[in-house]
Structures are given as C-alpha cells and as structure tokens.
Amino acid sequence: MLKPNRHRSKTEWLSRMKIAYYVLYVLIILLFGAIWYMNYDSLAQNGEPFKLFEPNETIGMIFQYGAILFTLAGIPGALYGFKRACAKIAKIENEDLRYDTYYTYATLRMGCIAMAAAMSLIAYMLLGAYKPMLWLAAIGAVALVFTKPGEAKTEQELTPTDDKDTY
User: Fold this and answer.
1) Quick check: helix, strand or coil at residue 5?
2) pTM to 2 decimal places
3) Closest alpha carbon to 7 in 97, 92, 91, 108
4) What b/e sequence results for 97-129 when a residue is b if at least 16 CB atoms lie within 10 Å of its CB, and e otherwise?
5) Residue 140: how many CB atoms within 10 A of its CB?
6) Which residues contact 103 (CB under 8 A, 6 or more apart)?
7) Helix 95-126 vs helix 10-46: crossing angle, to nearest 10
8) Among candidates 129, 115, 27, 25, which has minimal Cα distance to 71?
C-alpha cells in the first residue's frame, strides 16, 4: 500500500482533488473537441473522416481490442480496487496518513478511468470515427462521474466496515 508523506490538511486535499477532477474532465472534452475538429476538417476536404488505420486490418483490430480490454478491465478494476483499498485505509489510525493515502489512491482511480476514456477517444480518431470507440469513451466519461470528490463521500468511504461487506 502506498504511504505518502505529504501530510496536507483534509480541506487542502479535497480542494486539490476537485481541481484534478475538473481538469481531467476538461482535458477529455478538449480531446473530443480536437478529434471532432480533425474529422470535420477531413470530411470537408476529402469527404472521409481522418483515419490512420482501417478498423478491419490487424493494427486497427489491435487498437480496438486494446481500448476495449483497457476500458472493460480498467474501469471496474479501478472502482472495485479502490473500494478494497478504502477498507484497508479506514483501519489506519494516524489521521494524516489515512487521508494522505486515501487521496493518493483516489487520484490514481480518477487517472485510470480518465485514461480509459482518453484511450478510447484516441482509438476513435485513429480508426476513422469508428463509433464503438466513441461508446467506450462515453462509458469512461460516465464512470468518471462516480469518482467526483466530496467531503461526505470521503467520510463515507473511510468509515470502517466489516470485512464481509467489503469483499
């Protein structure tokens, strides 16, 4: 388990987490906007979307399966893994260390989910507006909603529970 030594206050951690959350969302929206613009520009010039690889060729299928596997394994893994980590973090007696560890893991969870959405958007662009990749990006963006930091949520997740309920 990570043992950070930053020892920031709960309020400072929470404000930094909220900033990171909104920055990740804005970056995903900007990435989507850039991809949309590239496709729009390519459609206007040659009548086809921007494309580096064909979805049915080997390299295109590798991108597809990579994005699918990362999204379908990464998102549930990040959410469930964080839940299991919270069960261990809640047992830490030193309050500063408990919140430092919690917020470090929460940042990793947000980053993993945002990475899944970004990977899907990049695969969407490289495969020439291949719509299933856009749906994967939407799944990642919706999953990121469930990681929004909040003081009540932090306290709820750090409340010790029985081991039977967490696994």
Assistant:
1) coil
2) 0.80
3) 97
4) bbbbbbbbbbbebbebbbbbbbbbbbbbbbbbb
5) 25
6) 8, 13, 14, 16, 17
7) 0
8) 115
Q: Going residue by residue through the chain (167 aa), what tens digit of pLDDT does each one get?
A: 555 556 667 788 888 888 989 999 899 999 988 888 888 888 888 888 878 888 888 988 898 898 899 999 999 999 999 999 988 988 888 888 888 888 889 989 999 999 999 988 888 888 887 888 888 888 988 998 988 888 888 888 888 766 555 44
- The residue extents of the domains of the chain are 10-166
144 burial (CB, 10 Å; 0-12 / 13-18 / 19+) is buried
Residue 129 falls in which region: left (phi positive, over 0), alpha (psi -120 to 50) or beta: left
- Judge whether 137 and 117 are in contact, CB under 8 Å: yes
Check: CB of residue 110 under 8 Å from CB of residue 24.
yes
Q: Which residues contact 143 (CB under 8 A, 6 or more apart)?
A: 75, 79, 113, 116, 117
Kindly list the distances between the CA atom of residue 19 and the CA atoms of 32, 44, 114, 121, 150, in Å, as whole numbers in the listed order: 20, 37, 14, 22, 12
